[in-house]
Amino acid sequence: MARSEPLKPVAVTFIVLGALLLDAAMPAEARAETLEKEQAEARLSEVNRNINALRNQLESSRADQYKEQLQLKELDLAIQDASLKYRKLAQQRDAYAAELADLEHQREDYLASLGNRLDQLAEQINAAYRTAGQTRLKLVLNQDNPEKLSRMLSYYDYMNRAQVDKISGLKEALTTLDGMQQSIDRELQRIENVQTEQQAVLDELTKQRENRNTLVAQLSRQISSEESRLAELQQNQRDLEALLERLNDVLADIPQDLGSRSGIAAQKGRIPMPVKGPVRHAYGQPRVGGLRWQGWLIGVDRGSEVSAVAYGRIAFADWLRGYGLLLIIDHGQGYLSLYGHNESLLQDVGSWVEPGQVIGVVGENPGSGQGLYFELRKNGKAVDPAAWLAR
Predict the structure, then answer these.
(1) Could you report the per-residue pLDDT of 140-166, keeping only the tens digit for each?
(2) How far apart (Å, rounded) are the C-alpha atoms in residues 62 and 66?
(3) Cβ atoms within 10 Å, residue 21
(4) What share of the chain is helix, strand, coil (3-state, %, to 5)?
(5) Following DSSP, what letter does each residue of 268-336 receive, concatenated?
(6) Alpha-carbon dihedral of residues 304, 305, 311, 315, nearest 10 degrees?
(7) Is residue 297 exposed (0-12), middle (13-18) or buried (19+ Cβ within 10 Å)?
(8) What kind of fold does domain 91-215 have according to CATH?
(9) What gap in Å lies between CA 129 and CA 134, rounded to an integer?
(10) pTM recorded for the entire structure
(11) Of the candidates 95, 119, 99, which has an alpha carbon nearest to the alpha carbon of residue 107?
(12) Could you give the 3-state DSSP secondary structure of residue 68?
């Protein structure tokens, strides 16, 4: 076999360079995608810091009722914490209850199979009773045919062994049932413990809600005149506009082309309601001093779950004066949806949400303001939800 000639230095150099270039080219797209994602997340974090600073600035710049509003914010956040804890405990209780139901179902099935075994044992005992006088000695003395005698003795031994096996099996079954009952008792204790903790959280939550209602009533008395109400509403709207302006580029990675997903524009007139309830105040209806509603107030009870109206990413999830716990979703293509007057928010900033996914729980806002406040915006401008949502 002829020896191959050694590679020349130039050839070796080209091979090494080619390998390096190939190695660099292969993961280029992956590296670019990762870098783009990291940059988007960095932008998101930076904008969120700016938004928090803006919100604090907006709050501190309003000297009127500042202390009361700060107290209201603290109460709302405390209620949210308690409400989320209560919700988590409810989910735990439901999980334990499902495990308990499964264990009880297993026990019922096992008891049914045990009943069949008891019936079989009873038949064997009856058969043994019917041949009780036929001892092995009698069988030997009364049989003249050796083959028949052998078969009878084998049957006799089989019956005895079967009875012993059945009785042994029943003892094991009773032990298994005892273990099942212990598991059931443990689940019952876990459910009882969760319910006790739930009640303590509920008592605290009820107390905080009562304190909040007292504070809201106090604030309402302070802005009872039409002039003061107008000033409050105007400032609330200006604060929201300032927040939305800052949110314009908050999520640069929201795709303009949603691929297989339908954007809001493609679903005009077919978008589901965020909650099921009557529209108490509609877009364009007059409020105070020439102001008009920029969205809907949908009348639903406290505790009603709020759903995302379309696919998108959470751009804001925090407290804002005049709107309480507010959640804003960026749906891409210039569309935003806003959900105000929540008791608790179930999604964090940056989270992607699907259509119909639960994102919050409606809070308590006594009087004509009870319900969820909902807005739909296109390029920063409020649009009438009636043209978009299916009712």
Answers:
(1) 555 555 555 555 555 556 655 665 555
(2) 6
(3) 10
(4) 60, 15, 25
(5) TTTBPPSS-S-EEE-TT-B-STT-B-SSEEE---TT-EEE-SSSEEEEEEEEETTTEEEEEEEEETTEE
(6) 90
(7) buried
(8) Helix Hairpins (1.10.287)
(9) 10
(10) 0.69
(11) 99
(12) helix
> What does the chain come to in residues?
391
- Would you say residue 5 has pLDDT above 50? no
Greatest mean pLDDT among 20-24, 26-30, 111-115 lies in: 111-115
* Residue 51 pLDDT class (50, 70, 90 cuts): confident
The CATH architecture one would assign to domain 253-387 is Distorted Sandwich (2.70)
The single-letter code of the amino acid at 201 is V
Rounded to whole angstroms, the Cα distance separating 365 from 34 reads: 44
231: confidence class by pLDDT, cuts 50, 70, 90: confident
Q: Which residue has the tokens 């505790």?
A: 303
Domain ranges (residues) in the chain: 91-215, 253-387
Is the pLDDT assigned to residue 341 strictly greater than 90?
Answer: yes
Model pLDDT, residue 159? 58
